[in-house]
Each structure stands twice: as C-alpha cells, then as structure tokens.
Amino acid sequence: MQTLALNSVIHGVQHDVENSSNKQTIVLIHGLFGNLDNLSMIRRHFENDYQILSIDLPDHGLSPHTKTFSFEIYANSVIACLKLHGLANVILLGHSLGGKVAMAVAHKIPHIVNALVVLDIAPVAYSPRHHEVFAGLNNIDLTSISSRKDAQVALAEHVLDAGTQAFLLKSLYQNTDKQWSWRFNLAGIQKNYALLSDWQYSGELYSGNTLFIKGADSDYLLAEHQSVISPMFPNAKAKIVQAGHWLHAQKPQIVNSVITNFLRVN
C-alpha cells in the first residue's frame, strides 16, 4: 500500500496488488462528510482483482480545505490525482456526492474512463436535506468537550439516528495540540451547501458503460430521474438494492455482487 499526500491536490491511498501494473484500477469516491474509509467494504471485495485508488475529496479526510466549492474544482482535483498516479484506464465509483463528482470526472476525461458506477444519487439539483446534521454538528462545542462521548451527546440532540452519529463522529479527531477538530471543512461545506446540492451540467455527459444503483428505501434516486439520466448517460443501466442511502454499508455483499456482474460484461 502506498500513501501519498498530494501537495495541494487531494489525499489518496493506492492499494497495490501483486502484478498491479496488469490490473485495471477502480477509483473510489466517498460522499458528503465522509472519507476514503467509507467505501472500504467495496475496496476489500475488489482489491485482489483490481488496483484500487481510494481518495479523500477536497474538504474531507486528509485532503486540503478549499475556499469555495464547485464540481469543476472537485473533478479537477480527482483528475490531478489520477495523473499523479499515472492512471489512464479507470473505473470510477462514487457514492452520493462522490457519485456526482465521478459523473463530472467521466464527462471531463471520458477517454480514460472505462466504466462509471454511481451509488444512490442522480444528476439533479436537490432541495436542502441536512438541516439536522448541521444543527447537530454546530451544537458540539469543540473547545469544551473532553471526550468523543461528549460530542455524541451534543450531536444526538439533533441527529437521532445512531448510524449517522457514528458516521459523522469518524471525522472527529484531536490535533497535535490535543484540540478537537473536524477532518471535514464544516464551515466551507455549510457555506457552499447550495452549490454542493446543485447540478449545473446538461446534455450528453458520458456515453460509456454506466451503472446506477439505487437504495430501495432511499429518496435520492427516483424513477422520475430516469428521464434526466438517459440523455446524459445513454448507456446507463440501473439496479435496485433493498437498502437505504448507505446501501454499500447496509447490504455490502449484494452491492458488491451487482458491481461485479456489471464489470464482468463491460
């Protein structure tokens, strides 16, 4: 395994396998408030047969924080990461926000993207849906908490779901001065939330083989989005998994099987 801090670009971890030069690369892109570990169950399933590049998006994980957001900035950061690793034939796989970024990357560099897999997100603008998350995160006074449990108690006043609490608290850490901090850029994400929720692209974006996987219990990817997806991704297929928005964590074996079958024929 090789870990690289990518200067001012983004942080990535390349998971090498024996004779990896002969392996195709799957690039894993996490969602909002996440980091490169979020898709680890997918990574572990494929890392013996593919080379895997897991990345932290800008403003997340160990990647630098940005002053402003745009899908162009995020996509260009991913592209710079691919170039730094010398990758020229990749499969892009993204969840939620990472799925939108993956779609933007595929649009910008279709000549090196062999296939695209999008987990539970559509190429559309979404109405605000993270009010409770922002309220909970802002309810945590990082200067006064003494433990992760203190943060969890404050977060739980607004975020009731234990799984969501655990997911968010994965990004809480103590810096070298023992001060509690967030890995993600909370202020920047909150400031640019409307842009993060938007989608400015139109027309045909990527004509390569594409798979959208929907969580049956999620309202992110809906039947009505098919009419939007088809002209943008004319070679797209869709599969439904009996899970929520976090389908890869809730039903990892099924999701991995669906992706495996898609890649086997593409």
UniProtKB/TrEMBL annotation:
Signal peptide: none annotated. GO terms for molecular function: hydrolase activity. Keywords: Hydrolase. Residues 25-252 form the AB hydrolase-1 domain. The keyword Transmembrane helix does not apply. InterPro entries: AB_hydrolase_1, AB_hydrolase_fold. PANTHER family: PROTEIN ABHD11. This is Acyl-CoA esterase. It comes from Agaribacter marinus.
